[in-house]
Every structure is written in C-alpha cells, then in structure tokens.
Amino acid sequence: MVRYAFLTDGIVCIDCKGLEKSDYRKIGYKLRNLVPCDLVTFEKEQVVVWKGKRKHDSNDELDENNNSSVEVE
C-alpha cells in the first residue's frame, strides 16, 4: 500500500498508535527494505517515509512486478 501511496504523494505517514516505539521502528526499517524510501521520523507514534529523489518511474516498476513470475524467498 505504501508503494501505491507514493504514486500520488511524496511523503507517507503510517499511524502506529498503540504500538511500542521499538515495534514501529522495526516496521519502518522493514518498509525501507521492501519499498524504495527514506525514513524521516518515528515521532508522535507515526512512521513517516519519503519517496526520495529516485529517478525511476514507479508505474514501470509496478507493471514489471505484475507481469513477472513471483519469487518466494
């Protein structure tokens, strides 16, 4: 969902109310590995991520993922 949010917005905030700070830090770092993004902050029970200055088109990447075979790790 974060990848699709980056199609329209450069910054995405993820609400982590009710979780411990260590848990939403883990979520943020895992997101960074799954979606090309930069972590901005973990303040106020939110994970804020920025799309960054990447030069690739996200639409092309999404189309490639939808048309290729799925690899299981």
What do these coordinates show?
With 73 residues, the chain is α+β, with helices and mostly antiparallel strands. It has one domain (2-64). The chain is built from three helices and three strands; from the N terminus they run αβαββα. It has helices at residues 2-5, 21-34, 58-67, and strands at 11-15, 38-41, 46-50. It has a three-stranded antiparallel beta sheet with strand order 1-3-2, covered by helices on one side. The chain is globular. InterPro entries: CAF1P_plant, YhbY-like_sf. This is CRM domain-containing protein.
Ordered list of secondary-structure elements with their pairings:
Elements: H1 2-5, E1 11-15, H2 21-34, E2 38-41, E3 46-50, H3 58-67
Antiparallel strand pairs: 1-3, 2-3
What Rg do the Cα atoms give? 14 Å
The assigned structural class equals: alpha+beta
Order of helices and strands: HEHEEH
Task: Tell how many strands the DSSP assignment holds.
Answer: 3
| β-strand amount | 15-25%
**Helix fraction bin:** 25-40%
Strand order of the largest sheet: 1-3-2
Query: Kindly, what is the distance between the CA atoms of the first and last residues, rounded to a whole number of angstroms?
Result: 20 Å
Largest sheet: 3 strands, antiparallel
Number of domains: 1
- Broad shape: globular
Tally of contiguous helical segments: 3
Low-confidence parts: 55-73
Mean pLDDT: 69
Features:
alpha+beta; globular; 73 residues; disordered C terminus; 3-stranded antiparallel beta sheet
State the gist of this model:
By secondary structure, the protein is of the alpha+beta class.
